[in-house]
Amino acid sequence: MRAFGIILIVVGIAMFLFRGFSFTQEKKVVDLGPLEINKKEKNNITWPVYAGALVTAVGAFLVVSGKKK
Q1: Which residues pair with 43 in a beta bridge?
Q2: How far apart are CA 1 and CA 63, in angstroms?
Q3: pLDDT by 10s per residue, the chain, length 69
Q4: Torsion over CA: 10, 12, 18, 21 (sign)
Q5: C-alpha–C-alpha distance, residues 56 and 39, integer Å
Q6: Domain total for the chain?
Q7: What is the DSSP string of 6-34?
Q8: Cα gap 6→59, rounded to integer Å
Q9: What residue intervals traverse the membrane (predicted)?
């Protein structure tokens, strides 16, 4: 459990530093034989700041509770 707690702490800190990410997705709109029309969409995925704090706190709890055993 300690190793998982350390991983959660690292992920939580990364969530503080990087508030989200974006990517481009290409969708096929029309496909009529040799004629093809594509559309590129830019998508954003973000998460709130408290999510990073929560993940870090859970990781710290797992590390501390793992040492008591």
Answers
A1: 23
A2: 7
A3: 888 999 999 999 999 898 888 999 999 888 888 888 999 999 999 999 899 999 999 999 999 987 665
A4: positive
A5: 39
A6: 1
A7: HHHHHHHHHHHH--EEEEEEEEEEEEETT
A8: 6
A9: 46-64
